[in-house]
Structures are given as C-alpha cells and as structure tokens.
C-alpha cells in the first residue's frame, strides 16, 4: 500500500541518516578532544582545491591518524579538469603579482609569516596528528616556514644582478633577474609544511605564483596551510590563485610533473632520531618488517628492536642491524623506517667511498676531532651529498643555507644562500648609450 511504501521510505531515510551520523561521529574532528582542528577552518568534509575559490569534485579521501589509525576528516580531491582550471587561474593571477614591486611582495610574505605565527601551535599539532611526528617537530616545521618568510622579506629588497664592466666604450652590461612565472610545488608526507614553505615564500618574493600538491596522506595539513595563506591574500585584495592548491594522487602529480608551463620543485628527506612518533601508514609498517627480513637474508644480524609495538597505531621499535656488506641491496634502499645499519670500515677512504656509492645524495655527517679528516670530508674526494655535516646529525638544516641534494636526490636547491635564483630567469643585457656601434672582441667590418 501507499502507507506501507511511505513507512519503508521513512525507515530507509532514517537508516541512511543514522549511518551518516555514525560516520561523522567516528571522525576525530567531531570529538571534543580535537575541537582545535576547527580553529584551522577544517570540518568533517573539506574542499581540496583552491584557486581563488574553494572546490573539488574528485575522489573523497579520508585522512587517518597514524598514532591510532582513526579517521580524522575527509578531503575531496581535484579532478584533472579542475587541475587545468587551477593552472589557468594561477597563470592569470601572475599578471597582477609580477607587476607588484618586490618589496611590496615581501610585505605580503611578511604577513603570511605573521599569520603562521598566530597558528603555530595548532598547526604544529595538526602536523603531529596527521603525519605522525612528535609535537615539537610539528611546531618546528611551521617555524621553518615562518623563518623562511622572514628571510624572504629581507631578500625582497636585495634581489638583483651585478653591473659588469663592458669592453666597449659607452656601453653598460647588466644582469637582470625576472620571475619564471608559475612554480609547481609537490611535497612529500614527511615534511608536509616546511618543504612547501621553503619554496612558497621565496618564489612569491621573486615574483612567481605557486601551485601546490601536497602528499595524498596529509591533505588536511595542505588545506589548513592554504587557508592561512589565502586569508592574507584576500585581506590585501589580491587574487587567491597566487597561491593555489590541488589535492590529489598520482594523476595530479603526473600532470604537474609533465606540465611544461610549470617550474616543478619538490623535496624529500629521511631522519633518524632517538625520540619519534609512529610510522606514517600501515604500509610503512609492512615495509619495516620486510626490510628487516631482507637484511637477515642478506647476512645481517638483528641486535636491537625489530618488532611492531603492541599498541594502537603504527608504532615500531627502533632497530639496529650489523654484519651487512656495504653494498648489500637493503643498505642502498631508502625505506623511511627507523632502521640503522652499522657497517665496519678499515680506512677513511673506504668509509668515504661507501658513503658515496649509494644513489641518494641528500645529507651526510661525520663525527671526528681530526681536523685533517674534517676538511678531506668537505673536499672534492669527500662526501658527494648536498648537505655535508661535521659532528651533528644528518637531520635538520638551518634556513640560511641552500637545502638540496645530488644524484638521484635531485640537484636543485631550496631555502637560503642563492637558491632564489632558480625561481627566476637571468638575462644578460647590453645597453649602448654612445653614438657609435662597436662590436665585441674588437671586430671591425672593413
């Protein structure tokens, strides 16, 4: 009967509503303990596209807390069509941004730094919750972004090329630096704020606009950071597309990497500490166990750790393995898990060679009081990494120095020193202010 159908429909709607309510109540963001997430503008469902306005109609992904594997909140990723739309809007925004004098651009970057300062604890807490690193490191990531903003503000009044002596009378030879345009930034899960910050602050100061794709497993951090930056732009009546974002997976990342309209930048790093949080995902736990088994099969001896901890989340024991050959395949494999391979060497040359024989070339360190060894380590036959330390760990880097690696790690540089030059294009300009037309090298046509 009609009445019976209405009753069935009402019951079905009630069931759907209950299922939705249960799903929402299961999210950490709805628990009082995590109410601070809403201070960052986050909600149960979050748009994963920003190009002056918020949107996204692609796949809906759930972000999980690696400390307990509970769902935090959801993000709707970008489609390829939305990526293309965002690129177009970002390129259009560049036309306005490039006309703004560099010191004025620096003022906007200063405001971004101040906005991040106001949210540093809550944003650091989000990094810890979503990525899994300990709280102090989460806050440290945001502090790096703030520090680079400060650095970029000063840079905004110093960007420039030299005036070079011309061999021709009545001529001036100068270097002119101009922005490259649109900078695409792809970041990994292990530094979901800092790597974007290094690139974003300096790229903006140099007159570029940015398009960011964060890791698909840390989308809430990407959304929260973008909300902070977007608010500053909007308060200054600037196009929000100056700092665009498209959350997504491999499809968006591949599109960015192949897009010739972008200068594509990215970063990655691995760290070993004595105080640490959970691994980022369940898959990382599987990789940890697989690496230990491979190490044993390749002749290694487990002397410490090697177990998954019996507690919620993706916690594993710090692990030390000895007895492996320096060229064992597992030693050359980057696993992003807390496993330390201890290798015995006989000579300095042998140790240096083993350091350099791997494909990665980001960071390295030596502990010694031998000053001769220090300078050999820093010299042409020493470490071939982009970061070469002495008596400090390989993790962490000051923002004033250029950050980046060699070999398969890359070759570009971010953050300090003269890394700003990669965000700009250089022109050598000759200006003739004389009444003659002399040629270079003293050439004369008779």
TrEMBL record:
Active-site residue list: 264
Domain of life: Eukaryota
EC main group: oxidoreductase
Cited PROSITE patterns: ALDEHYDE_DEHYDR_GLU
Gene3D superfamilies in the cross-refs: Aldehyde Dehydrogenase, Chain A, domain 1, Aldehyde Dehydrogenase, Chain A, domain 2
Keywords: NAD, Oxidoreductase
Ranges of residues in domain Aldehyde dehydrogenase: 59-261, 274-427
GO terms for MF: aldehyde dehydrogenase (NAD+) activity
The EC number(s) this enzyme carries: 1.2.1.3
Record flagged with keyword NAD: yes
Assembly notes: Homotetramer.
Xref: PANTHER family: ALPHA-AMINOADIPIC SEMIALDEHYDE DEHYDROGENASE (PTHR43521)
Family: Belongs to the aldehyde dehydrogenase family.
Protein name: aldehyde dehydrogenase (NAD(+))
Species: Amphiprion ocellaris (Clown anemonefish)
Gene: ALDH7A1
